[in-house]
Amino acid sequence: MSKLTKTFLHERDQQIYDSRATGMSTTDIAKRFDVAIATVDTAIKRHISQLNRTAILSYPEVLQMELGRLDKLQRALWPLTQPRRQTMDDGTQITLEPDIKAVDATLRIMQQRSKLMGMEIAPTDLLAAHDAAQSEIVSTLKGAKRLEAEEVTTEDEAKQLIALSIKAGIIDAPTGQALLDSGDIIEAEVIEDDAD
């Protein structure tokens, strides 16, 4: 059995991938290239993997090129987004207002830059969870949810604080649950470090 060269495999993988991309079935491709169906599947996976590696390696250069194009477009449009003086043929000067179309185009360029850099994705779920937990803690501290004195124990307050800390992501769930399940929550005081 002869050994296949990398060049031959690469070219065959490309042809198999192209055949599959046109809609040809793996069975028909296997017959055409006189290989097993598993070989066709492997060739397609190998080619897709190569495409992914190439895309990952070229992404930084492509990103930089696209950001550079956006910068050039924005620099060209920017003067039109500002009030400006223009000299007419008779020598008089008039003030032109910002061009609304240029402003709109500039805003679209800025949005595109934000998308490319991933700036539009905000961790809103995490922030919302943190804000909700913070608001619950603040309202409890202000007395909005204060229970009758005989109903509240230090252990209950500690358990509520641990539960809120888990919900806010301050304490990871397994550690927090272990603290809640231990039943050994004792009263403690906060000691400030006077080393400063």
Question: Can you characterise this structure?
Answer:
With 196 residues, the chain is mainly alpha-helical. Among the domains are: 6-58; 124-182, no CATH class. 64% of the residues lie in helices and 4% in strands. It is built from seven helices and two strands, in the order H-H-H-E-E-H-H-H-H. Strands 1-2 form a two-stranded antiparallel ribbon. A hairpin with a 5-residue loop joins strand 1 and strand 2. Helix 1 (6-21) crosses helix 3 (37-77), helix 3 (37-77) runs antiparallel to helix 4 and helix 6 packs antiparallel against helix 7. It is flat.
Q: Per DSSP, what share of the residues sits in E-state strands of 2 or more residues?
A: under 5%
Distance between the termini: 77 Å
What spatial order of strands do you see in the largest sheet? Answer: 1-2
- The percent of residues in helical segments reads 55-70%
Please count the helical segments.
Answer: 7
Backbone CA Rg: 32 Å
